[in-house]
Write a structure and sequence with these properties.
Order of helices and strands: HHHH
Radius of gyration: 23 Å
Distance between the termini: 88 Å
Oligomer: single chain
Number of strands: 0
Number of helices: 4
Shape: elongated
Strand content: under 5%
Length: about 130
């Protein structure tokens, strides 16, 4: 007897329903991110220049969030088209490995940006102290 594949195990209507669910979730997320970006932009328009570092970090975190969620949606789409359990396991392993690498890189990038901002603020504070002395 042939091994059952996921294509045979998942009725076409169920696969179509799952694909539509993923597409709807992705569309809702995209709308949420658009609204979030508008809100952040509106807030930044009112913020003072003293908050420029925080704004830069906020933008970076939003960018990383978008990338990570897009990767998750891509992974979900791939899972829906997996032919068998072995492919599911392979896709999952690839996704986990890629996300660990992405998150590690993102943490390093945030750390580097934060250190640069702290160094810049410390230098500005030092020059103000020296200027007032």
């Amino acid at each position: 007897m042939a091994d059952p594949t996921l294509d045979n195990m998942l009725p076409p209507q169920m696969r179509a329903f799952a694909e539509q669910g993923v597409q709807n979730a992705q569309k809702a997320f995209d709308q949420f991110m658009t609204a979030t970006q508008r809100a952040v932009s509106a807030f930044e328009g009112q913020a003072t220049s003293a908050h420029s570092s925080a704004r830069g970090l906020n933008h970076k975190v939003l960018e990383f969030s978008q990338r990570n969620i897009a990767a998750s949606f891509d992974f979900a789409q791939k899972l829906l088209h997996a032919r068998d359990g072995e492919e599911l396991v392979r896709l999952h392993a690839e996704f986990v490995k890629a996300q660990i690498e992405a998150l590690t890189g993102q943490a390093q990038e945030l750390n580097q940006q934060l250190n640069q901002e702290l160094t810049r603020h410390a230098a500005n504070a030092a020059s103000k102290v020296q200027g007032s002395a």
